[in-house]
Design brief:
globular, 8 helices, 3-stranded antiparallel beta sheet, 37% helix, 6-stranded mixed beta sheet, alpha/beta
């Protein structure tokens, strides 16, 4: 028998107080251990979907179900969820160690008790030599690594990533793409990754969900069947080019669907 999905979006809709309808009738299941990219034009509600999943926003219609988890009276699951935003959102006055320690500190874990976990998280992202550095002393890529380490410190079951590499140069972006896939394979997270990039979605994902805007909804759901691990050879392969072509065609169709709603 097939496993129950980690989460299920069931005809969710979101209308803001100003009357803007961000999402309408959006449904999809997210399987445990999958890497799903949400691809779509600006304003299609990709970030809104992540916030709803994370419990940072309310639904207007529909529901978010957690078939594989216990939920509390407010519908929140018992599985750990971490969120990586487009900007690193680091505390500028705090060291790298202190920024990564923050989620545990908020749970009442002392600095000494958290030391091994923080060091392990920094080691995962290649920053073991920078615990006492401050954000102002780091490059953009290093700041994003700190943000990812902070998200990993609680060992999440679900990792939500909202265009985390969009502001980075191409070489740094490629390197972080590879590092993220390595960590995903190692720790068997479920990842939902928001991106505007056809190329990034085809490289990272085992599934690309394409959304149309005004209001946001699923217009295509594409499987990326290429095996992992993926590397630079995959980036130059015919298979990769074909996945990019399919995703690009679906994205253009999504943009037309939004224009003609």
């Amino acid at each position: 028998m097939a496993k129950a999905p980690l989460l299920s979006l069931q005809q969710i809709g979101k209308t803001f107080s100003n009357g803007t309808e961000a999402l309408r009738g959006m449904s999809m299941d997210i399987e445990q251990g999958s890497f799903v990219s949400l691809l779509g034009p600006s304003g299609c509600g990709k970030s809104t979907v992540l916030k709803i999943i994370a419990g940072l926003g309310n639904l207007t219609t529909g529901r978010v179900a957690w078939p594989a988890s216990k939920v509390d009276d407010f519908g929140r699951p018992d599985c750990e969820i971490s969120f990586v935003f487009q900007e690193p959102t680091l505390m500028q006055w705090a060291t790298v160690f202190e920024n990564v320690w923050l989620p545990l500190r908020l749970k009442g874990v002392s600095r000494n008790a958290a030391k091994d976990q923080v060091e392990e998280a920094l080691d995962m992202v290649g920053l073991h030599d920078f615990p006492e550095s401050y954000p102002r002393e780091l490059s953009g890529g290093m700041k994003m690594r700190v943000s990812i380490a902070r998200a990993l410190i609680t060992r999440p079951k679900l990792l939500l990533m909202d265009e985390p590499f969009a502001a980075l140069d191409e070489i740094t972006r490629f390197k972080l793409n590879n590092d993220l896939l390595h960590l995903w394979e190692k720790f068997n997270w479920t990842v939902i990754f928001v991106t505007h990039s056809v190329f990034e979605s085809a490289y990272l994902s085992d599934r690309i969900v394409v959304m149309a805007a005004r209001p946001g909804r699923v217009v295509a759901d594409l499987a990326v069947d290429a095996p992992y691990p993926r590397d630079d050879d995959f980036r130059t392969s015919k298979d990769y080019n074909e996945y990019c072509r399919k995703a690009s065609n679906a994205l253009h169709a999504a943009m037309d669907a939004g224009d003609h709603l």
